[in-house]
């Protein structure tokens, strides 16, 4: 039951409304598919100029109301970071849905099938959060996702920053769903650096297993400094499958999804290493 | 609440409830080509319209989102005495069976062809990925969009 | 995406076939892909569907759903609900007559049990009707539903078809009035909705004397048609107090009759009109909501719109889940000594289509292969689960899956190529089967010999297109992914012989155009167009000159409706006859005008012509007959029933890639080769093939009903019940193989159902080729494939 729909043109107005308990909407898909009977006041934040993408040498900055279509289609997003961002955005296959869903909304609304948090966590993104009458805060996404309390409560995510100051890394991305238009059952995103036959700075994120994606530190522990062989990967996959837990989903058993996690992790890491070899060549 | 919007080139002052969807407003306004089929969850695409030329799912779009912007439904593209190339291509290719998904498909295709003159089959499939059809198996729908793109390129020469 | 291509090669079977298919090429309108007559209107957003009609002052209709799978309604109190302002009617079982009927859209006397009421004092599946409400908004309906006081006696449900007939199982239809209206076995006390059997020859002898005797069990699963437009019906009283129902139906005449029966009002008080409808696929071969709407219209005297939600659509009508056991004896050369098919069909809470779907398992599958000993043994049982109805394929889908995987297994046992095994055994023109006569739809069937068959050609062309010999048995692939190819052969039918009737009227207008008024029901298939093509062909006109009105029980003559793949074959024949009749009348008048004999007149290009070059236009004839001389209306009505059900034939080939680490099966390429006789409109025929194949692919791989332990469907939405999008499509090809069916109008048979039967067996067989696991239970979801792979390794 939506009591009022506001369309402020200034961020200050929007923050004031949100501070009083109004629900911010950008794509609005979350609110309109939920069809909650709860009384709500909505604040449409799509007219605040938060829909730009800015590329600098050291970082990429995306406004919170940038749509997944904008990201998926943006060839200016550079190098590995750009490729990973586009991949994450394209994971939402339905084009008209991509035209509506925004980066901020995909982060702010906790649901296990959100694809952008997976890649943002892999890329060590930071969130700019603004609240009425308070100083702007920058929070690493890892912290934001791990915290039980939402850092943007009564405020707004306004921008997302992704650092570009990395040495050449390879990346891999795997997503398992039943059809192309299905939500993911497991997503794996990996980045790493290559030193000869050895992987360094291995970072693996698994999504869709729990409400929020998480970093699998086990991957780094098992791979760091090791010769990167098929053998190693098989072992890593099995260990990861044993170590992760899947939240219940009536469409697939937990055991299967844990098994998938191991397989997808292995494949994402393998792809990342192959990329890294290509980049170095 | 009230807001001004342009639908199919005509300016309208819309009066609606704050929580109304664009779908509801369009149906109430007599735009019968806009359909629904998934309990307004945004999963079937039959409600697709263009908002400033981009395909969106009107059943999960807030009506006020259209304020100051341009909404296009398939009625605007053409009529039987003067159909749009896409409408003609869909007919000629055999891409229309029950016709229920057709308005949404055509609009999704229009949005693609407005930004991509020579789309690959993969790009066509991507543009129509949010529109379900149970009748055609999509084969002739893809044919129709490919044909329309070729015709439009020809006409542009 | 490959464009479909039409082969010009004709059937090699007989030279008369070759002549006829060559002759068929001379048709001017038939055999051409003329635009579907309503397609442009649809593309412009102008054609009207039910919910696009004038809804001013219409009330919203609502069915209060049962939360229980099995319960008695001990008491139901609607006082509070009725008192809510804006609520115009709340109907309970106490308000309606107890007129037992079937909801199955079938001809009278229906071969389905009369076990349904508009409202009963018992509910039999989660979602079953508890009460009916008409109110000014849907919100008010729901508020009224919440205000309803229902005292349920919850009963133990039957959720497993295998347990339905066990001693002590809860009896789902314990009402004394439930009965079968035709004399066939029916035992509601044991939850048996139907049973049928036939047998020819001595199966024990076959078992003893055959080189190979094989037995295998198969199962198929629940699915929903998912028409993008759910069931919807708009009802109102006209000024003469008749109930008018504008309905998204495949069976307007059955809807009229059964609605009248259910409410105890005369048929003449009901009118059913079908506008454009958004798909049916069999879901709408059902009289399911028309009587509900009529009841609310009569109670309120207002216009009422009932539109099912998608969630309600999922538990409206479904595909019957069927267990099939096949056993048979084979010789070394692959020839069949005999086969037995055993069927257990889960018909859900009501017996609509229970007997007929079950019988089709045998009648549309067993005759495909030559065998002198054959047996069929089938039961359909009630469960407290969603109701099985008519779904494209209609039993043949389920049984063809079993048969075609079974044949693949037989081929392997005998060391024969699967395609070769089909070639050695499939029925050929001139041949019959003991099954045709023995197994009809509840009654004995109709003996027939095959007239046209392009199956041999389908096998050859499909085999080539998929690259069979380069891929079969090679297990190509890299890493954990393995590829394989599989195939299947199929038959279906065209109409229900000696039972179903179609009729058509035509009348001539001032300008030489004709009204073609048909009872036949176009559900998006394009039947209006195909029938117009036939009339145009006879009259030497184009489809622009044929104005089609269809499916209005007041205006159009009778037609059973769109099912059993009958419209082209049966309604088409009625069109052909009516067109010949008016053509004769036209020629008679032309002869008078041209002072010649009628025999010397041909109708071509909108004119009636004589050999010496003189002609009159049909427009001139129209004006003369309506206004000028010997004024009379040139018109005709014709009816048709069929004497046989000539099968279309098809061969499907699938290439799959199995990911052995995840169990995911990707369809790399799919080929459907089809003989439908003359394709009256090739693009529309291909469209039927393609739509059926893609539906069959998602049925095989991704569609699934998930129930909780109380019989409630957990995924009644497109988020969790997966049908395919453009981005799921494999490389694909349709191959049309023309033949000429002598008994069909212009050589046509049918095409609408058969191809949905191909994907399940073709993919199962391809998976076996890829990874050596045999999947005999659908769907082939990744978890099940992976489990099968693990079991095989163990």
**Could you say which overall geometry of chain B the principal axes of the C-alpha atoms support?**
globular
The chain-level structural class of chain C is alpha+beta
Q: Report low-confidence residues of chain B grouped into runs of 5 or more.
A: none
* C-alpha Rg of chain C (nearest Å): 27 Å
Proportion of strand residues of chain C = 15-25%
What does this structure look like?
The complex is a heterotrimer of chains A (281), B (157) and C (794). Helices cover 37% and strands 24% of the residues of chain A. Chain A is α+β, with helices and mostly antiparallel strands and 281 residues long. Chain A has three domains: 2-44, no CATH class; 53-163, Uridine Diphospho-n-acetylenolpyruvylglucosamine Reductase, domain 3; 170-280, CO dehydrogenase flavoprotein, C-terminal domain (Enolase-like, domain 1, 2-Layer Sandwich). The model of chain A has no long low-confidence stretch (mean pLDDT 95). Chain B has helices at 22-28, 85-93, 102-115, 121-127, 139-156; strands spanning 2-7, 10-15, 48-51, 54-57, 70-72. A five-stranded mixed beta sheet of chain B has the order 2-1-5-3-4, with helices on one face. In chain B, a hairpin with a 2-residue loop joins strand 1 (2-7) and strand 2 (10-15). Chain B is globular and about 45 Å long. Chain B starts with a strand and ends with a helix. With 794 residues, chain C is of the alpha+beta class. Chain C has a seven-stranded mixed beta sheet with strand order 4-6-2-13-10-11-12, sandwiched between helices. A five-stranded mixed beta sheet of chain C has the order 1-27-26-25-17, with helices on both faces. In chain C, helix 9 (354-363) packs parallel to helix 10 and helix 10 packs parallel to helix 19 (759-771). Residues 1-13 of chain C have low confidence and may be disordered. Chains in contact: A-B, A-C, B-C. Chains B and C meet through helix 2, helix 3, helix 4 and helix 5 of B and helix 2 and helix 18 of C.
């Amino acid at each position: 039951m939506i009591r009022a729909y506001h369309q402020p043109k200034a961020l200050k107005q929007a923050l004031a409304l949100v501070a009083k308990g109004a629900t911010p909407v950008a794509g609005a898909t979350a609110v309109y598919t939920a069809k909650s009977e709860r009384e709500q006041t909505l604040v449409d934040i799509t007219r605040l100029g938060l829909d730009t993408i800015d590329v600098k040498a050291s970082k990429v900055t995306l406004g919170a109301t940038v749509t997944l279509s904008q990201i998926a289609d943006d060839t200016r997003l550079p190098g590995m970071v750009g490729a990973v961002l586009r991949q994450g955005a394209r994971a939402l296959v339905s084009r008209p849905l991509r035209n509506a869903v925004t980066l901020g909304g995909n982060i702010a609304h906790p649901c296990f099938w959100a694809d952008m948090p997976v890649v943002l966590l892999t890329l060590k993104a930071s969130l700019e959060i603004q609240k009425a009458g308070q100083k702007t805060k920058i929070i690493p996404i890892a912290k934001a996702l791990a915290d039980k309390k939402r850092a943007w409560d009564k405020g707004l995510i306004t921008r997302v920053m992704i650092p570009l100051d990395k040495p050449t890394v390879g990346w891999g991305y795997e997503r398992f769903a039943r059809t192309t238009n299905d939500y993911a059952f497991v997503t794996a995103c990996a980045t790493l650096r290559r030193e000869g036959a050895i992987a360094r700075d291995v970072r693996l994120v698994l999504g869709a297993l729990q409400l929020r994606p998480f970093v699998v530190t086990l991957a780094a522990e098992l791979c760091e400094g090791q010769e990167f062989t098929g053998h190693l990967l098989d072992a890593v996959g099995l260990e990861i499958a044993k170590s992760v837990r899947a939240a219940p989903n009536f469409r697939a058993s937990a055991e299967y999804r844990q098994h998938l996690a191991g397989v997808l992790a292995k494949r994402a890491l393998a792809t990342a290493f192959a990329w890294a070899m290509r980049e170095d060549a | 609440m009230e807001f001004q919007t342009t639908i199919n080139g005509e300016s309208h002052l819309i009066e609606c409830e704050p929580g109304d969807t664009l779908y509801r407003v369009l149906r109430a306004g007599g735009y019968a080509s806009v359909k629904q089929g998934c309990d307004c969850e945004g999963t079937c695409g039959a409600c697709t319209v263009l908002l400033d030329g981009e395909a969106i799912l009107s059943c999960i779009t807030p009506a006020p989102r259209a304020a100051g912007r341009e909404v296009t439904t398939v009625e605007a593209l053409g009529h039987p005495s003067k159909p749009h190339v896409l409408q003609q291509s869909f007919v000629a290719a055999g891409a229309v069976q029950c016709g229920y998904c057709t308005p949404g498909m055509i609009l999704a295709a229009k949005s693609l062809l407005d930004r991509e003159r020579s789309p690959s089959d993969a790009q066509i499939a991507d543009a129509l990925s949010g529109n379900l059809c149970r009748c055609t198996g999509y084969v002739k729908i893809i044919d129709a969009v490919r044909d329309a793109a070729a015709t439009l390129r020809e006409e542009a020469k | 995406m490959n464009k479909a291509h039409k082969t010009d090669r004709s059937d090699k079977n007989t030279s008369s076939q070759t002549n006829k298919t060559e002759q068929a090429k001379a048709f001017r309108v038939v055999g051409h892909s003329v635009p579907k007559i309503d397609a442009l209107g649809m593309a412009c957003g102008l054609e009207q569907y039910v919910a696009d009609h004038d809804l001013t002052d219409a009330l919203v209709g609502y069915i209060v759903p049962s939360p229980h799978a099995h319960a008695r309604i001990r008491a139901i109190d609607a006082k509070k609900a009725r008192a809510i302002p804006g609520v115009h009617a709340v109907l309970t079982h106490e308000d309606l007559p107890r007129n037992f009927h079937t909801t199955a859209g079938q001809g009278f006397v229906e071969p389905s049990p009369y076990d349904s009421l508009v409202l009963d004092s018992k509910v039999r599946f989660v979602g079953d009707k508890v009460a009916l409400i008409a109110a000014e908004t849907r919100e008010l309906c729901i508020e009224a539903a919440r205000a309803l006081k229902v005292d349920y006696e919850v009963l133990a449900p039957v959720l497993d078809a295998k347990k339905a007939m066990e001693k002590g199982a809860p009896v789902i239809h314990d009402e004394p009035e439930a009965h079968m209206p035709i004399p066939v076995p029916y035992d509601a006390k044991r939850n048996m909705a139907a049973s049928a059997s036939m047998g020819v020859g001595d199966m024990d002898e076959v078992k003893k004397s055959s080189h190979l005797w094989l037995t295998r069990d198969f199962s198929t699963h629940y699915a929903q048609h998912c028409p993008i437009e759910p069931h919807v019906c708009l009802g109102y009283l006209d000024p003469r107090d008749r109930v008018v129902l504008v309905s998204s139906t495949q069976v307007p005449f059955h809807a009229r009759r059964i609605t009248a029966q259910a409410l105890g009002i005369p048929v003449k008080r009901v009118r059913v009109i079908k506008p454009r409808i958004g798909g049916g696929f069999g879901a709408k071969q059902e009289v399911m909501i028309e009587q509900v709407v009529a009841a609310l219209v009569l109670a309120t005297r207002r216009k009422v719109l009932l539109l099912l939600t998608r969630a309600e659509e999922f538990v409206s009508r479904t595909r019957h889940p069927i267990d099939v056991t096949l056993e048979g004896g084979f010789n070394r050369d692959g020839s069949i000594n005999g086969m037995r098919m055993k069927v257990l069909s889960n018909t859900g809470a009501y017996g609509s289509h229970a007997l007929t779907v079950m019988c089709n398992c045998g009648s549309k599958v067993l005759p495909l292969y030559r065998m002198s000993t054959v047996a069929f043994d089938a039961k359909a049982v009630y469960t407290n689960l969603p109701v099985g109805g008519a779904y494209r394929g209609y039993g043949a889908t389920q049984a063809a899956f079993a048969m075609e995987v079974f044949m693949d297994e037989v081929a392997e046992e005998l060391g024969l190529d699967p395609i070769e095994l089909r070639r050695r055994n499939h029925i050929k023109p001139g041949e019959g089967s003991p099954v045709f006569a023995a197994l009809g739809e509840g009654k004995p069937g109709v003996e027939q010999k095959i007239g046209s068959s392009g199956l041999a050609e389908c096998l050859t062309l499909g085999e080539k297109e998929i690259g069979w010999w380069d891929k079969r048995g090679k297990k190509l692939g890299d890493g954990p992914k393995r590829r394989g190819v599989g195939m299947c052969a199929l038959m279906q039918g065209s109409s229900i012989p000696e039972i179903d009737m179609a009729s058509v009227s035509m009348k001539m207008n001032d300008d030489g155009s004709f009204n073609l008024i048909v009872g036949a029901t176009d559900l998006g298939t394009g039947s209006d167009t195909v029938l117009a093509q036939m009339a145009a062909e006879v009259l030497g006109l184009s489809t622009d000159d044929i104005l089609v009105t269809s499916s209005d029980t007041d205006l159009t003559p009778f037609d059973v409706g769109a099912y059993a793949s009958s419209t082209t074959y049966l309604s088409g024949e009625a069109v052909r006859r009516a067109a010949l009749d008016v053509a004769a009348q036209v020629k008679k008048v032309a002869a008078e005008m041209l002072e010649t004999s009628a025999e010397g007149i041909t109708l071509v290009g909108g004119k009636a012509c004589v050999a010496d070059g003189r002609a009159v236009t049909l427009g001139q004839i129209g004006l003369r007959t309506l206004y000028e001389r010997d004024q009379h209306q040139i018109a005709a009505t014709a009816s048709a029933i069929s004497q046989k059900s000539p099968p279309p034939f098809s061969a499907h080939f699938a290439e799959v890639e199995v990911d052995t680490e995840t169990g995911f099966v990707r369809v790399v390429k799919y080929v459907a080769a089809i003989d439908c006789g003359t394709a009256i409109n090739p693009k529309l025929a291909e469209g039927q093939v393609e739509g059926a194949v893609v539906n069959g692919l998602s049925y095989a791989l991704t569609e699934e009903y998930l129930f909780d332990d109380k019989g409630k469907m957990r995924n009644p939405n497109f988020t969790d019940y997966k049908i395919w999008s453009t981005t799921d499509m494999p490389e694909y090809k349709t191959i049309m193989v023309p033949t000429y069916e002598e008994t069909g109008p212009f050589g046509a048979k049918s095409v609408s159902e058969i191809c949905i039967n191909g994907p399940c067996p073709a993919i199962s067989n391809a998976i076996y080729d890829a990874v050596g696991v045999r999947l005999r239970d659908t769907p082939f979801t990744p978890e099940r494939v992976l489990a099968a792979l693990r079991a095989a390794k163990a």
